[in-house]
Amino acid sequence: MEYIRVNKKNLNDEHICCAISNNNDVQVKSKKEWLSDRFDDGLVFLKSTERGKCFIEYIPAENAWNPIKADGYTYIDCLWVSGSFKGHGYSNDLLNECIKDSKEKGKKGLCILSSEKKKPFLADPKYLKYKGFKVCDEAENGIQLWYLPFDEGADKPQFKDCAKKPRITEQGYVLYYTNQCPFNGKYVPIVEKTAKDNGIPFKAIRITSKEDAQNAPTPVTTYALFYNGEYVTNEQMNDTKFLKLAGK
What we know:
25% of the residues lie in helices and 27% in strands. By secondary structure, the chain is an alpha+beta fold. Strands 1-2-3-5-6-8-7 form a 7-stranded mixed sheet. Strand 2 (44-48) and strand 3 form a beta hairpin.
């Protein structure tokens, strides 16, 4: 399969979202705006020539939108291969290109978020283990930081203290999110309206800067839902899922 590196010059012409083809869709617009602002920070978005079926997105860990300490590493935002394209080695192609690029840039290794058992929107731990990744830190909510060092003597990446115990003081449902995930552009407003219509206390906090993301009270900043101060899930909600979660 052929791959394309998306940049500022070709961003408007390339299909970059997992399941959305319309460039005028709010989800696509929000994601492309987020990407455009990150390219200057060293973000790489490598995708297959197939429309949004396979891609990897990674960035120098110092510029990652996550509360981690991983200087000198590459942080993988997302490695995605859709259903019918799985099992053909495309994940390996993309990961190998990330490894090659990172080594050429003198990086210490790679790091990525996952968990002991597969969680929605996080990397598959079985695949990471197969590729030689190891767990280097874990938050109290079960979110793990995995790493693949290029030198076994390299320092291990860590979560910042603010992310190790994901709790907040606010009551009701509180959602922290970014526009890194395109689906948030559509579904966060839907959940906001659903909560309002059903009298459910809900507050959405969109993280809009690297500094805020790196000091967030959660390892996952793309989507982190809390209830009465306790972490609930990183799985994106639609109206039906949210009402079920809230017992409505």
